[in-house]
Amino acid sequence: MESASKKHMYRYLMMLTIASTVGLQGWRTLFDNFAVNAAELDGYHIGIIQSIREIPGFMTFLVVYVLLIMREHRLSALSVLMLGVGIAATGYFPSYGGLILTTFVMSLGFHCYETTNQSLTLQYFDRDTSPWVFGKLRSMAAASNIAIGLFIYLAAGIMDFQQLFLLLGGLVVAVSFWGFSQDPTDRDIVPQQKRMVFRRRYGLYYLLTFLAGARRQIFTSFAVFLMVKNFGFSVREITLLFVLNNIVNYFLSPFIGRCIIRYGERRVLSLEYAALILIFAAYGIVQEKWMVALLYILDHIFFNFAIAIRTYFQKIGDPADIAPSMAVGFTINHIAAVFFPALGGMLWMIDYRIPFWFGAGLSLASFLAVQKIRIQMRVEALPIKSGTDR
Fold it and tell me: How many structural domains is the chain composed of?
């Protein structure tokens, strides 16, 4: 683990990941209150915007073709730049159409970076190290989010939405410029396929990725909105909740990575999905403010277990398939995500509990699917010697 932390790529991904997650977390902290109080949007509008936010995730298969003209680490820095620009512009467009535009730009940057981040991590760190690296990246991102959360909590009383979005986006843009000045690559890395890759043996990976995307979008789109709309959470209360959530994840994320290494993907994912069945069902039942906050924290804890889906692929996939498969995986992850939030928004108007009950059903399907995980050691081709071995 110590050797991994000394790699230039580790430091490079650490900086860009911190910037990316800080930007997204700050945007999410402010967005629902900004949408309700400044843009005066309702649940239907939120659902449509969240669906549009996921369209760039559906488009990530195009990353494979961008890599024909741009190196992967450069695309990472460019993606973080787009993320920062979208966040910085958000406060200047307090309308339905304006939020659609800025959300799309922000999301395009975020999803492209997440694709390259996962790909580079799996390429540069072996199967016994990558879960720890994923966990460490999440841990440091959580620590940075704590700082941003505390800042927003203190600044919310003296700065308006426009100023807060601009400052957050500016910080992300600054880190992207740093990324353009770096070259963390290693010539010994296996060259990646520069085309789309679909293989039958990756079918379970595709299914788990699809279900994770559908389930996650229900939570992302409606959990915080539920707290603001139905339970009256303020900007400061949402910020405090995010800070507490990140404190927990700062300590737990590396531990989760070590659990994947020790116990394997099937056991870790089984625990995640069993817990999420109960958590989603509880969203439709609880009536106390502190209980819905607790559910939100628990959901985020188990969300970190999802890195096991990526490390599962690393164990069954060809090394040259990592970059195109991460791009394809992100697209599959967002097939349902493009329309689920909009559908959930319409269902919300009937009964706010319906989207969460649907999330419980998706968690059950994931639990059943993950029982099919069977990992065999990948056998590398051995060189054939001339002559006869005795």
Answer: 1
